[in-house]
Amino acid sequence: xxxxxxxxxxxxxxxxxxxxxxxxxxxxxxxxxxxxxxxxxxxxxxxxxxxxxxxxxxxxxxxxxxxxxxxxxxxxxxxxxxxxxxxxxxxxxxxxxxxxxxxxxxxxxxxxxxxxxxxxxxxxxxxxxxxxxxxxxxxxxxxxxxxxxxxxxxxxxxxxxxxxxxxxxxxxxxxxxxxxxxxxxxxxxxxxxxxxxxxxxxxxxxxxxxxxxxxxxxxxxxxxxxxxxxxxxxxxxxxxxxxxxxxxxxxxxxxxxxxxxxxxxxxxxxxxxxxxxxxxxxxxxxxxxxxxxxxxxxxxxxxxxxxxxxxxxxxxxxxxxxxxxxxxxxxxxxxxxxxxxxxxxxxxxxxxxxxxxxxxxxxxxxxxxxxxxxx
Length: 375
Prior knowledge:
Structural class: mainly alpha
Number of strands: 2
Largest sheet: 2 strands, antiparallel
Radius of gyration: 26 Å
Shape: elongated
Strand content: under 5%
Strand order of the largest sheet: 1-2
Distance between the termini: 45 Å
């Protein structure tokens, strides 16, 4: 039995090596941006990428694994798995194509391939072909050939064509099947922790390009496509366009500068506390409750209290981003789900850094939950 499982070890090894080649090519193409980055940090990119690489490989293993388990419960002693070689070849060609789109997308947009990049190819192919005129065609074809050649070679040396079974009691077969399915599911999910896999798992460096190199191209594309399907229309169309525009414009009208200076120093220490699931009703000052939040009440009485300030959203992923960036909460999602958008929005830490502040962020939970680490 364990000899037959070597098939899946080799299957995973094939795809981990293919993803590593793809990552090497990405870093080679954009080597000028990596010039001043320490070699040790560049190499660490490959280690940091393993979690999402394994997750993507586990997704690809689902079909072979289900077929394997089906035949495992029959009386056959040998099964022909030559079709997996063809399955791999198709995916290698497809993933190589995604990679050259990714390289050109990154060159133009500075972000990994996502739904916005592939949607025009599917829905408006003529316009997509016309807009690709500035991409280096011959160079892209050369890179595609390298990726396909590398992948096909790995497929040739690592993919076994046959699997042999030994006679095993049915109860043992059931246990092994459950173990294999469960183990593959955990690889897809990223373990048994609170936070499932997200782009944050690949982020580790202050150099943005290393985070992008670490992020598995196909995993990121799949995640982007799934996220895009959750937003089909604006759920907040309560006014006509003219009335809505007038209401928003009225909010930004300033009759005169009413700014009040409340600081006693030009450079104070800035500490922002975000208390989740905490209500103003629990304070003496705003809710008339004694003894629950005496320190907060003391701060309210000594400092400046805003009594008409409201939550930026209904979940942590919206509240943290809204508070620290000022980015409006999205009704049907959160901007942290789209790293290519998130990396372009401003944040209070940028302003503090510009004013010679040293910043830190402490989160009372898993920082990889809902992509916070990437943020």
